[in-house]
Design a protein that fits this description.
About 55% of the residues lie in helices and about 10% in strands. By secondary structure, the chain is α/β, with parallel strands linked by helices.
């Protein structure tokens, strides 16, 4: 298969959605109002409920940096959305602002400069009435099929509402690109964690923000609040403090019967089969989940240099030492027993009571106490045949 790089036709929309999520995070994280909240894809691309309502359209251009002209689709598509909200009385026009955020530049010759956030309207050559006349002229005379609906909706508004809309529009042109937004978000987080942990913190805040965004888009939460975001940032930053680590795999992994069967050749699964657990049993599926979560979590910590190899080895040594002391008791109980079923039953009790129901309280860091890491790490060791659950596991495997 060739290593062909796809064109931007697919990349730009995908990045556009990511940009929309990032920009919403950026705006909320910068809010000075602790009661602020954000909605995505409700009245507009982004709704910011702050002291007032701000409806935001985001336009990301990566293939080419377009200029905004008088009949630019970016502007008129935005105007269409805003005019539709006004016409259907979804908003209080006197208490709503309308913002177009675009990576494009406003053309120097365009009257859209009137709306530019970086230019003083008093410096323009146009009055409010003249701007309205120019918008009406474009809407009445342009032949753009793309903009047709926007033209019609704007022209259908009463003049009073047209003027109010004009007064409440801002265009942020030449806006930050994706990389710039990422840097700005990182900058906003800089005081919440040590500098060397800032990239990892930023990644996790963005990841959690995306999760909240999906919950919001699927109607599981009505909006995302500043307080929720603040709580996310605090929780994650606390996980980078001394004697703690970030927990990236809180949720159990759901394992199907087919997935469990496909892993039947793994040594840690065979270890459980030795003590009479079926591969498709709930307990084995839980073991697979713990194994995966522990493996991925420890790997991520190593990659991000949150722990080092020596710490990981010391942790495994503690786990093995504890297993040794408990396993010695099992061996003594099984000494002289010839019946295989009795051995399996004793081993099953050993495993479930001491490593499932109440696993040893051995923590890689004092304040990281999630049990999946303990159970999963024991399965990692059993997969290497360093430990086992049956008194004769070394001979039977």
């Amino acid at each position: 298969m060739s290593n062909t790089v796809t064109d931007f036709s697919a990349k730009e929309p995908a990045l556009g959605y990511f940009y929309q999520f990032l920009y919403s995070l950026f705006r909320l994280i910068k809010s000075k109002n602790t009661e602020a909240s954000i909605r995505i894809e409700c009245l507009d691309d982004i709704d910011i409920i702050d002291d007032s309502l701000d409806l935001i359209q985001t336009k990301l251009h990566i293939k080419s940096v377009a200029n905004l002209s008088n009949s630019s689709p970016d502007f008129w598509k935005s105007l269409r959305v805003w005019a539709d909200n006004i016409e259907k009385e979804r908003i209080d026009l006197d208490n709503t602002t309308f913002t177009l955020v675009t990576t494009a530049n406003i053309s120097e010759s365009s009257f859209l400069n009137y709306f530019s956030e970086t230019k003083n309207k008093n410096e323009t050559l146009f009055t409010e009435s003249e701007i309205l006349d120019k918008l009406i002229s474009v809407a009445e005379n342009s032949t753009s099929a793309t903009n047709k609906k926007g033209y019609e909706l704007f022209l259908s508004l009463p003049k009073e509402n047209q003027l109010k809309l004009i007064n409440n529009i801002s265009i942020i042109d030449a806006s930050m690109c994706v990389d710039d937004l990422l840097e700005e978000i990182k900058h906003e987080l800089r005081f919440t964690v040590f500098t060397d942990k800032l990239p990892q913190l930023t990644d996790r805040v963005i990841g959690n923000w995306m999760v909240f965004g999906v919950k919001h888009l699927t109607n599981r939460i009505p909006e995302i609040t500043y307080k929720q975001l603040h709580s996310i940032i605090l929780d994650i930053s606390n996980s980078f403090k001394e004697e703690n680590l970030p927990n990236d795999f809180l949720d159990e992994i759901k394992v199907t019967d087919e997935e469990a069967k496909s892993l039947g050749t793994k040594t840690f699964i065979k270890q459980l089969e030795l003590i009479s657990f079926k591969t498709t049993s709930r307990l084995v599926k839980n073991a697979i989940s713990d194994f995966r979560r522990a493996y991925e979590q420890r790997s991520r910590w190593i990659r991000e240099q949150l722990i080092n190899i020596n710490e990981e080895e010391a942790y495994e040594k503690e786990l093995v030492d504890k297993w040794n002391s408990l396993f010695a008791v099992l061996e003594d109980k099984c000494d002289g027993i010839k019946d295989d079923e009795e051995l399996k039953n004793l081993s099953k009790v050993f495993y479930t009571s001491l490593f499932v129901e109440k696993p040893p309280s051995i923590y890689i860091k004092k304040n990281f106490t999630s049990e999946y890491l303990i159970r999963g790490s024991y399965h990692i060791l059993s997969d290497k045949k360093i430990i086992g659950w049956h008194p004769k596991f070394e001979d039977l495997l």
